[in-house]
Amino acid sequence: MWNGTPCPDLEPTEKFPGGITNGAEWYVVYGGMQDYNYVYTNCYEITLELGCVKFPFADQLPKYWEDNQEALLSFIEQVLQITRLQWTLLILQLSVDIVRGTWTCYGSDIILAQL
Question: How many whole angstroms separate alpha carbon 21 and alpha carbon 18?
């Protein structure tokens, strides 16, 4: 898929520039978990299409892992870095709030301490 022609045997005219597609342009899923989580929990979900076959046979799964292991682990590393950065920024903001004399619990109306 990375070369921009994901499934030449199944869909010879289909092209993904740079190996990436906008899922909504490819096919639409109404009312899926991605919509629900984005709207109601402020979480962002992604779908990774790793091959042309939706339900590969079990004996093909090790090949999918071999082909995608490095990219998937790299993706997880990037998510962890972003998470660490968000925690660092939150801690810095809390430190600034403590110095200013106000320390609030973000995401709610509860004031934990008023200095």
Answer: 8
